[in-house]
Structure formats: structure tokens, C-alpha cells
Amino acid sequence: MNGLARAQASTDPTTTAAAPPAVFAVQLTNFSGPFDLLLNLISRRELDITEIALAQVTDEFIAHIRRIQAAEGEWKLDEASEFLVVAATLLDLKAARLLPSGAVEDEEDIALLEARDLLFARLLQYRAFKEVARHLAQRLEEEDARHPRDVPLEPHLTRLLPELIWKHTPEDFAALAAKVLAPRQEQPSEVGIEHLHAPAVSVRDQAVILQDFLMTRGPLSFRQLTEDAGSRLVLVVRFLALLELFRDGAISFDQAAPLAELLVRWSAEDGQWSAEALTSDVEAGGFEAEGNGDAPDGGPGLRSWGEREAQDD
């Protein structure tokens, strides 16, 4: 805003001389009016901050504070601190506007523009807080004029209230409080850890199950042989049992076509194979061989995974 901004308040000169104005007003060459109106015009960019003499505004505010102190006998510290914050913001904003303007060439210019926008945001924030404070003060003043209706309950309603009868003595309440505050005597129950250990699954038992499946139902795929496996551990041990049976020559594998599903067939004669021929077992947590871990025929028995890896290395 390049023109002259005038916002003269119609006040009586005699009244103004008798008592200091409650609202701080400034008298500049290009503006005359309340300080809040000046901030409003600057925030809406209707008045250029570079045209405002901040030193003159500061001098007028100091004179305003001194007049209030002379009339009321005390300093308005809250108003003074509020003005200092706003004046510092205006000073920073004016310094940012006085910097050479031109095309934005580097990050420093961008930072200066962002700082200027932040200063405008601080002015808007100040206006918002001041408006909210004014609204709250008005509401508090209105609420001070309200008084609650303090009358006793009407007689016909009083008769409806039940009679309050105390059956407990202070000693009873003391006993209840002691019972509630007393530490618990019983020990916490132990938490079972059985669920942390999976049950052992025997290779020998799974081999017997596979023998029964293959002898009664004929050739089956591995999927069919493990469809009743209740857990992953059972599935793995049943696969190990297949390997043991194949090593002992009790089963054979058929494949009708390349990449087709393998079918397991029982190939041992009656009485030729027995579950007692298996010399290995599986325990929960790892594979352990019975005896010395060797098969009856001198072949390799079922060892733990660690033993197999050590042997492979």
C-alpha cells in the first residue's frame, strides 16, 4: 500500500490528556491508528514494512508505557514483553525486505525468502493468539456475571430419597483397607514349559507306518504317504524313514514320465525286512544314532546333521 493509511480514532482530547489511552496507537507520517491495525495491514501486505519507521514506533511505545506507569503506578510488563516480541519480528522482516531482490540463484536466496515467509507467519500467529486471548477474556468476564441457583431440594422430592443407614463401623472399614493393601501371600503358580519341547518322533515307528501303508494300499506318492502327518516334524521323520527303507532295499521308486511324481512301491518279500533292522532313531532337537551309529551290514547309519556335515567336509 503506497498511499497514506489513516485510521484516526475519534477521541476527546481532554479525556486523552486526563487518562492514558488503553490501546497503543502510533502516529507516523504514513500511518496513524492503533498498533494492531498496523500489524494487520502489514500482514495483509497492504502496507510496506520498509515504509514504517520502527524507531519512531518504539519511541512512541516507550512513551505510552511511561504514561501508564505514571497513571497506575506500575509497569505493564506483559504488554511490554508482547511489544518486544512483535517489534523484533518486524525488525527481522524489514531487514529481509531491504535485502537486494532479484532472481533466485542459490540456496542462500531461497533461505532468505523462506525466512521472510516465516516472519509473516509469526505475525499471523501473533494476531491469532491475541484474538483468542481477547475472546477468552470476554467469556471469563461474561461468566463472572453468572450465579448458580442455590436452593434446597423441594419437600416432595426430599421424601423420595432413601434413608441412608450405615451398618459398618470405622473398625470394619479399617479391616477392609488392611485386607486390600496387604501383600499377597500365595506364591505365583509355575508356568509349564512342556509346550516348549516337541515330542520325540521315532524313525522306526514311522517306517512301520509306511510299511503298513504300502503293503495295504499299493504304490503311493510321498504326498499320499504324509497326508496324515500332524506336524512338520512327523513329515521330516517320515521322509527319513523312506530313506532308511530305500537303503535297506525294502522299497523302490517308480516314475512314469520325466518330471512326473515319484511313486513308492514296497519291494521286500514277506519276512525279508523287519523294523528291528533300523539301527537309528530321531529325538526331539536333533538326530542321534543308536549304538555306535553303524548299520548291521557295516553301511553308514543315520547320524546327526553335525556328524554328516563334518564327514562331508
From TrEMBL:
Transmembrane segments: none
Sequence segments annotated as region (Disordered): 282-313
Alphabetic keyword roster: Chromosome partition
Domain of life of the source: Bacteria
A biological process term (GO) from this entry: chromosome segregation
InterPro entries for the chain: ScpA
Pfam families associated with the record: SMC_ScpA
Protein name: Segregation and condensation protein A
